[in-house]
Amino acid sequence: MCIHALLRLMRTKLNDRLLKLHKGKWTRHLLGIRNRHKTALTCDASLVTVVQPNKVFAVSGKHSNVYLVEQNEVVPHANMTCPLQCQPCGICVHMFPCNCVDSGLRNTICKHVHLVVAKFSPVLYCKTTGDTCGEEHTSDEMEDITSNTQVVQNNK
């Protein structure tokens, strides 16, 4: 009976592992990024003002707080390879720092960054070429790159 129980446990664990490899594992960090994306979609877009075009944005928060969202000129990795990214926005945690608690202490994409990207769609720059990301690929090619990147990451 012990051997039968061990074999059943191994079968269950292998099935769970196959599901994680196929679908991708959603960590708590990625779930937080997704929740902040949903929160940003419900926020008023008039809270965002442009300080420097396509570079620095000011987002008005609660209690008369103002958060500065600034686009990094250099991203420490090639485009679409970061595991901590928001798929709908096409950004990762390294592209836009903000001076809020979420961005600074929790090292995540805050709702302010999501709001800026949703409202202004700033031009995103690639590290390797310095060109704009997204203009050199069509949307279908970007989906293929994203899916191939996920397959490679899951196989590691």
Task: Provide a short characterization of the protein structure.
The chain is an alpha+beta fold. 44% of the residues lie in helices and 12% in strands. Helix 2 crosses helix 4 (111-120).
Q: Order of SSEs, N→C?
A: HHEEEEEHHH
Content-based structural category: alpha+beta
What percentage of amino acids are in beta strands? 5-15%
Count of discrete structural domains? 1
Average pLDDT works out at: 75
Number of strands: 5
Low-pLDDT parts are 134-156
Radius of gyration: 19 Å
Q: Which bin fits the share of residues in helices?
A: 40-55%
- Order of the strands making up the biggest sheet: 1-2-3
Description:
With 156 residues, the protein is α+β, with helices and mostly antiparallel strands. The chain has one domain. Helix content is 44%, strand content 12%. The chain has five helices and five strands. The protein has helices spanning 2-23, 28-42, 101-104, 111-120, 139-155; strands at 48-52, 56-60, 66-70, 85-86, 91-92. The strands form two sheets. A three-stranded antiparallel β-sheet has the order 1-2-3, covered by helices on one side. Strands 4-5 form a two-stranded antiparallel sheet. Helix 2 (28-42) packs across helix 4. The longest helix is centred in the first third of the chain and has 22 residues, at 2-23. It is elongated. The chain starts with a helix and ends with a helix. Residues 134-156 have low confidence and may be disordered.
